[in-house]
Amino acid sequence: MSGQHEGRLDHVWAAEPRFTARTPRVVAARRLHRRRDREATGRFLAEGPQAVREALTAAGGVHELFGTDDALRRHDELVAAAVAAGVPVSPVTGDGLAALTETVAPQGVVAVCAQRHVPLAAALAGAPRLVAVLAGIRDPGNAGTVLRTADAAGAGAVVFAGDAVDPYNGKCVRATAGSLFHLDVVRDGDPAAVVAALRGAGLTVLAATGYGDTDLDDLADDGGLTRPTAWLFGSEAHGLPPELAAAADARVRVPLHGRAESLNLAAAAAVCLYASARALRNREPRR
Amino acid sequence: MSGQHEGRLDHVWAAEPRFTARTPRVVAARRLHRRRDREATGRFLAEGPQAVREALTAAGGVHELFGTDDALRRHDELVAAAVAAGVPVSPVTGDGLAALTETVAPQGVVAVCAQRHVPLAAALAGAPRLVAVLAGIRDPGNAGTVLRTADAAGAGAVVFAGDAVDPYNGKCVRATAGSLFHLDVVRDGDPAAVVAALRGAGLTVLAATGYGDTDLDDLADDGGLTRPTAWLFGSEAHGLPPELAAAADARVRVPLHGRAESLNLAAAAAVCLYASARALRNREPRR
């Protein structure tokens, strides 16, 4: 993953003073661990080389790249991308890095990124064939994992609806493994309005629920997954609110063949999204 | 979830002294949080009413049921099941419970369960149509989640192979959400021998790997999932060892439609196991 010309761009940053945990810009960036400060500034932190790389090529942009000497030398290609994008590169001490990261083994680089708020109407204008709606999902790891899976399944947008977690929460960002930067992330407070807008845009709206009256395999066999589709997923603890499930075109259950009482949210979402991906793919020539 | 006759069976336990964190039997049970003590005793802890319920009906058996007064009263049906199975019921104080549990909000009951070691040959004698092999998966949450998904997809056995996590690790047990008690759990140190035994029993062995040369959808379209199948899954950090992937009948990748670099382990396993479940189901009348 490291650049071929390790350290070639040292001159960009090596003469700068090293920022510490008390340097005002590090102190300010560190506050982005808190939702309140993320919302006030429209910024968030992406840590680790993979996320930083994606952030530097994404539409939203990056305000600043922090890294230890070692990491900046190792990831010369990130420094090059930052320079190309006009992003300041700031070397930090080990404790400066620790202040900016949440993981036990941070990989040396952190970017201050701009949140990119895509209104639902703008996301729908792109005519996505697959959309995932996270309705009130509070767990950041679950939300980020479903977003990552949605990206892999070819979704064009993920909607954080209702009382869902902040998509820019550090744990959520890490769980997306870079996918946060690949698709339209929409935040909308009112799940019922989201469903109405999705249907208005011509999408079939399917509620994923263990109590659904439609079996996923039957739906696939009957051709019910070949149209552009939005899947609604609820929290693992509370499921989908009944009125939201009722507003969907169908309530779909993943079949349980063994004696498990249920699937966890990430597994159920993977099965549903990939059932759609397969049905949508069968309508076009194989890549 | 509570019994219809809450507290009817108080007489079974109410006159007993309340065990505390210092009572020798609680001290001994608490040691089961450590792998070394689990292996030495062949016992493990299952916490929460759902897991305790499953444990009491499973083949392995339960050595003792601990619970707070409140929880034992609330879960009279568990007390009834324990009495029916000849399992001692021991009331514990709040700190006694805290010593036995690992979660922030324990739900009041913990069972000391017997590990049930099913040799691979015995599991294969049951002619399972679907088997999941966890090859060197170290993360207990991931391993437990895949086991739960395998149960839901109808697997008859899950094999913890190589340097995999202890299936009786507390976090793994909790992630299985009771499914640990539903299927044959096999532990086998040598993944290569596992693959040979699976193939010897007539199972098709498929290695799930992001670098596989066979596309999962193509395999399903070509009828490659209609025979009894064992899936090999490697750790998220290191994947499957190349020699193990090479020993499988095919190396299968879940197609990536978007820009995600990969799926996480639990999502990839869910997609693979459910592709098999659907193909196997299509060969028999719908339930």
TrEMBL record, chains A, B:
GO molecular function ontology, one term from the record: methyltransferase activity
Asked if the Swiss-Prot or TrEMBL record annotates the protein with the keyword Transferase, the reply is yes
Q: Which InterPro entries match?
A: Alpha/beta_knot_MTases, MRM3-like_sub_bind, Ribosomal_eL30-like_sf, rRNA_Methyltransferase, SpoU_MeTrfase, SpoU_subst-bd, tRNA_m1G_MTases_N
All residue ranges annotated as the RNA 2-O ribose methyltransferase substrate binding domain in the record: 45-119
Q: Which residues form a coiled coil?
A: none
| Pfam families according to UniProt | MRM3-like_sub_bind, SpoU_methylase
Enumerate the PANTHER family for this protein. Answer: RRNA METHYLTRANSFERASE 3, RRNA METHYLTRANSFERASE 3, MITOCHONDRIAL
Name of the protein this chain belongs to: RNA methyltransferase
